[in-house]
Amino acid sequence: MISLQFLVTAFVVVIAPGTGVIYTLAIGLGQGRGPALMAAMGCTLGIVPHLLAATLGLAALLHTSALLFQIVKFAGVAYLLYLAWQALKSDGALSVSANRNRDSGWRIARRGALINILNPKLSIFFLALLPPFLSGNPATATAEMVGMGAIFMVMTFAVFVAYGVFAAAARDWLLTSDRIMRWLNRGFAAIFAALGARLAFERA
Asked: What does the pLDDT average to over 105-118?
């Protein structure tokens, strides 16, 4: 059963800035509204494997398997460091530049999805988040988990779109200053590097 408590909890979780939000903001600032929407979609789709893992109990396997957790974790660390490098490069995927070409929607969405897919903590997070809100009826537990997961994804997409639209609206003003663009690129690079470092020290 979907409760007000679940909706409030899910909204607080979704609205808090994380890796997906930073990615969506970077795309919105660097490439505009349309690409930002694709970034939001990709980040949202990247949640699906973790929700399925939590629903099917696979998250518990990830939690108990140190080797599997480490493999996924360090793949995620490497990817975040790659995105940090892409923010620093003048023609990188996340660079904020006045004259850069737009990437294809597929590439933007794929990068967003990978950000979440390669974060093993998400599966464990959903395994902890969803069960406390179940009705307690084993016959409907799976359907309830799927329903809550779907609502969480809708919230994620809506909030990320709002972040992306805001970034795209600020794009024209920010692109008038080369100094601001340089600091934005350095800032995004530093954030992704810091997120990668934090993920590296995460434990199952």
From this structure: 93
Q: Tens digits of per-residue pLDDT, 58-67?
A: 777 776 777 7
**Amino acid at position 2, single letter:** I
Residue 137 domain-assigned (yes or no) = yes
Q: Work out the burial of residue 143: count CB atoms within 10 Å of its CB; fewer than 13 is exposed, 13-18 middle, 19 or more buried.
A: exposed
Angle 21-203-141 from CA coordinates, rounded to 5° = 70
Its domain, for residue 191, covers 25-200
Express each pLDDT in 88-110 by its tens digit. 886 777 777 766 677 889 999 99
**19, 38, 40: which is closest to 157 by C-alpha?**
40
Angle between helix 19-31 and helix 66-88 axes, rounded to 10 deg: 20
- Note whether residue 82 is domain-resident: yes
How many domains does the structure of the chain reveal? Answer: 1
Q: How far apart are CA 94 and CA 23, in angstroms?
A: 8
Minimal CA–CA distance to 153: which of 43, 64, 56?
A: 43
